[in-house]
Amino acid sequence: MNKILCFSLLTAFATMTSAAPPPQPLGCLIQADQVAELGSAVTGIIDSIKVERGDTVRRGQVLATLRDAVERAQIDVARSRAEIEAEIRGAQANLDLANDRQRRANDLFARNFVSSQAVEQADADVRIAQEKLQQARDLQRVSKRELDLAEARLSERVVRSPFDGVVTDRFMSVGERVEERALLRVAKLNPLRVEVVLPNTLYGSIEPGMVADIRPDLPGLDLINATVTRVDKVLDAASNTFRARLELPNPNNRIPAGVRCKASFANAGGAGTETAPQPKATAPRASSSRADMSFDTVLTRFRPGQQPRPERRL
């Protein structure tokens, strides 16, 4: 029993002396995955703004429009030209007539009623009629391209959201002239982007695909898992640090951007990581040196209820 007690004391003492300090989480910042300041491709007067700050928007949603009366009128004119079929029908009728004349001329030439010159004239009339029909079709094709161009110019006077996100700022109002200024700012909040600054001692142990625990500095938010997507290939010589980027899922935009956080990596050594398991303590080895004591000596000198006996000198 005494041997077991002494061995337990030695084991506890060895464990206490070899325990490492608890890991410290790393500071990080939660940011929007994308931020875009939206403007107009053309100069004009704002006709309407359909969203306000804080509104959730979808990709392709119309956010604002400019005055477009002139562009719509150009579309109507181009559409009318593209739908005209009279020139094509007239050219087709001329071609049919030329073909009939050519057949009659060939028939009369075969019976020696007309000269070869009449046949050549009929053949030339057919070729001219064919070219006029092709010209009419080409003009209609150009009119359709002009219609596409007019519609494209109209679309430039509409501001749409480039991705799903939230409107974070509105810079202009209805009636103002748009030139180079932005109208709105939109941020993509799902997923979020987490930027972590790590010491150079962890370089090589952080790789894309690793999972980290993120704790936002906001009440009511628990630990959230984020995945490493990018790791810097160049270290900052001034601070001996490097950066890693993580992707943080954010369904329903529950977590706001711009929040500080703490990051912990489970599979890397050093700060912000879990402490590696310590080796089990073993009983001290017997030695003949006066500086070492065998296990039996420990039991003899530290037996409960007795005073330690002095060591006999030779």
UniProtKB/TrEMBL annotation:
Span of domain CzcB-like barrel-sandwich hybrid: 35-182
Give the record's keywords alphabetically.
Coiled coil, Signal
Q: SUPFAM superfamilies from the xrefs?
A: HlyD-like secretion proteins
Query: Annotated Gene Ontology MF terms?
Result: efflux transmembrane transporter activity
PANTHER family per the UniProt record, alphabetical = HLYD FAMILY OF SECRETION PROTEINS, MULTIDRUG RESISTANCE PROTEIN MDTA
**Family recorded in the similarity comment:** Belongs to the membrane fusion protein (MFP) (TC 8.A.1) family.
From the Swiss-Prot or TrEMBL record, give the protein name. Efflux transporter periplasmic adaptor subunit
Name the source organism.
Parazoarcus communis
Q: Give the lineage.
A: Bacteria, Pseudomonadati, Pseudomonadota, Betaproteobacteria, Rhodocyclales
